[in-house]
Structures are given as structure tokens and as C-alpha cells.
Design goal:
19 helices, 4-stranded mixed sheet, single chain, alpha+beta, globular
């Protein structure tokens, strides 16, 4: 073959490759529109507000694993509570912990709550883990009617769920009768089960969980609807994955689970605006989250890239689906008609008191590009512990010492580095362990967003758009204020203590109704990291103007 023919053949191959790539992009990006995605309806006693997901989309997304692996799936189905014979997985037990119930369907054959799913590894083992929707699905009870909030703020008691799983495993190992019942349930599914092998595996996993909980011990109780995700991410990678126990730090700055509508449209995300929303940022930040929520990664003994349990393909699908979400509209048929005169007055007040930080969102624009408003932590005056913890501390690098930060190039790690640099390196190496899957995920989830550069040394909190805020109590980044009404009062007049866990909507103050409820958790604003100070905006309004502003906020 002569030189000209070689070039012709090469160009033909390149043409075929790019045609294939274009077809792949079209296939991954193509979405069949769901006719019920923007219609409010009630099904099985639950009202949905038409936020952009169809029925089947919601079902699939609620049970799409990103690689979370807590305990063996069959163990979870067979496990009893520590202090009685009731199965741990029973609805009333998991509802007590803040999970939302769901009937069985194709994506949830065992009828587990929203956000608890099955994952499989390469060895054929099945695992119980959490999905995004465990922490990012809300529910409001409005005049007795349950209203499901897609992408909303969960009131899951994450830590209590972890603690009680370990207690159940420990009791099963310690009590012969409980062990026999557990084993019988397992054998009903797999008759040739080796009891000794199961006991060894269960003992090993219980010890691993015990060590993990000790590593993440905190003097600040999280309670319902909160988690120090960053703190646990840093520990999972810098201490656990690197095998350096002294790298652990107390994850003592819990924040509320943020709502996810509009998040995919912002230029920067996270409460402290630490994550850019231009690719590969979204894939990387979701991979980091997967590692925090019981994903696994193998760093020690690996030279370049790292294998993990992260399901990269699913992360692309999950991000694409959340891009469709819009905020829930105030359900006037359930919560009451909005007063039009108050709305008009409230809109004027919003423009002078709130609009500078909390931009308005056109949810009808499916490709909306939103800009995050960065407010210095000192200026807003809210509890600084979250931003302080994120920016502070260096850790030992161990096996990373001498490696390039960007795998093949760039600066090399010395004996110590910031926790953030360690996390970014591990996540990059994890994604590049499966380069084709990562490229496909980026193609599937890719959307054009704005970009914004912030001073990396400064400490900021995000002023997010507040459309749909009526459904996402409690408020401020750390969940320290129970209602919007209270947020419009001077900090000295806000409740010093209140209970979290009640989903009943307070339609006047906008938030969840106060007062003790069985299985609710007490929020004490005097504890470190729990301060309800700051955000002294609109606090000078008289009662009439405050009422008008609240009415307008309901309409957003």
C-alpha cells in the first residue's frame, strides 16, 4: 500500500471513529420525554408535584447504585434488631430512622425504602448500600397528606442507622438463638450455606464497621437530616484508604442534606462553593460522595490508578437525571391559596431585602445557567466550623509521597499535603482506572454551565436560590433554624433548641412544626458547630412586611 493510500485509510478510520463518537453522544444524551414528568398526581397515598421526573424515572433513579456497600444484601434482609426479633428491614423500623417507604417494583423487588438498594461486585457478592435519593428525597405532610419532594432534603438519621446496623450485627454474633434464626433465613435462600464462613465474614465486617465509626466519632450529634460529608470523605480517603490512622479528624461540622433541584445548573456547588460544575467537576464530586457513603477504593500497594466500587456509568446517569429537576411549587390545593395582595407587597420587599443574594430562577428554562452567590463567612456571620474544617489541616501522604498529583505530571507529593489534595488525587486515579467509562459518563451528564473563580484561600458560604424553600426545613447550612419566619428574626430571638424529625408543614412560618415527636432528635444551638447566629437580613421588618415576604417566598 503506497503512502497516499495509507493516509486515505487513516483518514477513513478517523472518520469512522468520530462518527461512532457522535452516535454515542447522541445515544447517551437522548431522553425520551415522560408525559407525567410535570404533572402533579397522587399515587398509593402519596402526592407528587411534577418536578421533572416521570414515574419510571423516579423508580429507577431511587434504586440506582453508585457503588455503596455497607453489608451483604442477604444479611440485611435476614438481620433482626439488636433488642428484639423484629427484622431490621421492616418498614416501621426504617421509617423510625427517617427513611421513606416504597412499594415493590421492578427496580425494588424487595420493597425497600427509597434510597436503599442492592449492588454487586466482580466476585458475585451482593451488597446493601445507599443511593443519592436516601439523603436527597424529602417529604412534607400537609394537612394530613404526604407530599413527596424529589431532590429534597431528607430527614434521615444517618448516624443512628449506622449505629443500629452495627448493634444488630453484634447481637446476632453474641446471641445463639438470634444467630440460628438469622442463619435459617439465609439458608432459605441458599441451602448449601457454610455457617462457619458466614460467621467469619460477619465478624470481620462488624469489626470494620466498628473501626469506621470510631474513626468518625464526633462530639456533635448529627440527628435527623444532617451529615458532615466532607469530614467523613477526608477520613475515608486520608485515613482509611491510605491506612494512616493518625490522619483522621473529628467530622464535627454536620450540615443539612442540600436540595438538588437547580444544583446541576449552578456554576459552583457545595455549601462552601468548593466544587466547580464544569466537567469533569460533577463526575469527580459525585465519585467523592460515593467513597464517603461506603464506596471502596484500593490505594495501598497500587502504583498509578486505583480500583474502586464506584459505578461510574451510573454516576453519569444520576447526574443527567438530576439536571431535569425543578423545584416543587406551593400546592395551593393542599396548603392554601396564596394571597395575591400579600404577594405583590412581598415581591417588592424581596427585591430590596433578598434578591441581591438569592436570585430568581426560571424553572421553565431547561438549560438555565445559574451563578452562585459567594458570601464571605465572616460577612454572613453563620457558624464558621464547616468552612474552617474544610480549609484547615494537612495530613501524612504515606504511599503517595513522591507520586505526581496528576498521576503522570505536575508537582509531586511530599511527606505532607492538604486533605483536599489527597482526595482529589485519589478520585482522579480512581476515575482513570476506568477511562472509557469515565469519558462516557462525562458525555452523558455533560451540560454547559457558567464558570466562576473564587479566592481559594477565602472562606465562603453559598447563597442559593430559594425557590422551593418551603419544603426544605430546617434552614442555614447547618440546619440551625427551624422556620423561615425564625430566620427573619434577629438571631437572639431564634429558638435555642428545637426538635427535628417532624415532617408536618407549618404553612404560616414555613418550615416543619415544632414540638417533640417520638424518634425526633433535639437540636441544641449552643453546641459547637450548631450556632444559629448570622444571616441578619430582613430582621428589621415589621410583622406585616414579614408576613408579606413569607407569602412571596412560598410562591417561588
Amino acid at each position: 500500500m503506497n503512502k497516499e493510500n495509507n493516509y486515505a485509510f487513516l483518514f477513513w478510520l478517523l472518520g469512522v471513529f468520530f462518527l461512532f463518537l457522535i452516535l454515542l453522544i447522541f445515544y447517551l444524551r437522548y431522553d425520551q420525554k415522560s408525559p407525567d414528568a410535570h404533572k402533579a398526581f397522587t399515587h398509593n397515598g402519596i402526592t407528587y408535584l411534577g418536578q421533572g421526573w416521570g414515574v419510571e424515572e423516579r423508580k429507577q433513579l431511587s434504586y440506582t447504585s453508585f457503588g455503596s456497600r455497607i453489608i451483604d444484601y442477604e444479611w440485611f434482609l435476614a438481620l433482626e434488631n439488636a433488642n428484639n426479633q423484629q427484622l431490621f428491614r421492616q418498614d416501621n423500623n426504617l421509617a423510625r430512622l427517617g427513611f421513606l417507604m416504597e412499594l415493590p417494583h421492578a427496580f425494588n423487588p424487595d420493597g425497600l425504602p427509597v434510597g436503599i438498594t442492592r449492588d454487586s461486585d466482580d466476585n458475585g457478592n451482593s451488597w446493601m448500600g445507599l443511593t443519592c435519593t436516601a439523603c436527597h428525597t424529602g417529604e412534607s405532610i400537609i394537612n394530613g397528606q404526604a407530599v413527596r419532594i424529589d431532590g429534597g432534603q431528607s430527614l434521615l438519621n444517618y448516624t443512628q442507622f449506622e449505629v443500629e446496623i452495627l448493634e444488630a450485627l453484634t447481637a446476632t454474633l453474641a446471641q445463639p438463638e438470634k444467630w440460628q434464626r438469622f442463619l435459617t433465613r439465609l439458608k432459605n435462600k441458599k441451602s448449601n450455606l457454610d455457617a462457619n464462613s458466614v460467621k467469619q465474614q460477619l465478624t470481620k465486617r462488624a469489626e470494620e464497621l466498628k473501626n469506621r465509626f470510631a474513626m468518625n466519632a464526633s462530639q456533635v450529634p448529627y440527628g435527623h437530616g444532617r451529615l458532615d460529608a466532607f469530614g467523613q470523605i477526608f477520613n475515608a480517603i486520608a485515613a482509611e484508604a491510605l491506612g494512616i490512622v493518625e490522619n483522621k479528624r473529628p467530622p464535627d461540622a454536620p450540615t443539612s442534606f442540600p436540595v438538588l433541584w437547580d444544583a446541576s445548573h449552578l456554576d459552583l456547588v457545595q455549601w462552601n462553593l468548593s466544587a466547580p460544575n464544569k466537567e469533569p467537576g460533577p463526575l469527580a464530586q459525585n465519585a467523592v460522595t460515593a467513597l464517603a457513603v461506603y464506596g471502596t477504593v484500593e490505594v495501598v500497594g497500587h502504583n498509578l490508578t486505583y480500583s474502586s466500587s464506584i459505578n461510574i456509568k451510573n454516576l453519569g446517569y444520576i447526574q443527567k437525571e438530576f439536571y431535569k429537576l425543578v423545584s416543587p411549587k406551593w400546592p395551593e390545593n393542599l396548603a392554601g391559596k396564596l394571597d395575591q395582595e400579600l404577594l405583590r407587597n412581598g415581591e417588592k420587599i424581596y427585591q430590596t431585602e433578598c434578591l441581591q443574594c438569592h436570585q430568581l430562577v426560571d424553572s421553565n428554562n431547561s438549560t438555565r445557567q445559574l451563578t452562585s452567590i459567594a458570601v464571605p463567612a465572616e460577612e454572613i456571620g453563620t457558624d464558621p466550623r464547616m468552612v474552617d474544617n474544610f480549609n484547615d489541616e494537612t495530613v501524612k501522604t504515606g504511599e503517595l509521597e513522591g507520586k505526581h498529583f496528576a498521576l503522570w505530571f505536575g508537582r509531586k507529593f511530599t511527606a505532607e499535603a492538604t486533605r483536599l489534595d489527597v482526595v482529589l488525587h485519589v478520585v482522579l486515579a480512581t476515575l482513570l482506572h476506568h477511562p472509557w467509562e469515565s469519558v462516557c459518563a462525562i458525555v452523558e451528564e455533560f451540560r454547559s454551565n457558567k464558570s466562576q473563580e473564587l479566592d481559594a484561600k477565602a472562606k465562603y458560604y453559598k447563597a442559593r436560590p430559594i425557590n422551593g424553600i418551603w419544603s426544605s426545613a430546617p434552614y442555614l447550612h447547618n440546619g440551625s433554624v427551624p422556620t423561615v419566619y425564625d430566620l427573619l428574626l434577629p438571631a437572639s430571638q431564634r429558638p435555642a433548641q428545637f426538635y427535628v424529625g417532624n415532617r408536618e408543614l407549618d404553612t404560616i412560618k414555613i418550615g416543619n412544626k415544632a414540638g417533640f415527636l417520638e424518634n425526633s432528635s433535639l437540636f441544641d444551638t449552643t453546641l459547637p458547630g450548631n450556632s444559629n447566629a448570622g444571616h441578619e437580613y430582613g430582621t428589621q421588618l415589621d410583622e406585616a412586611d414579614r408576613k408579606a415576604l413569607l407569602e412571596y417566598i412560598k410562591s417561588l
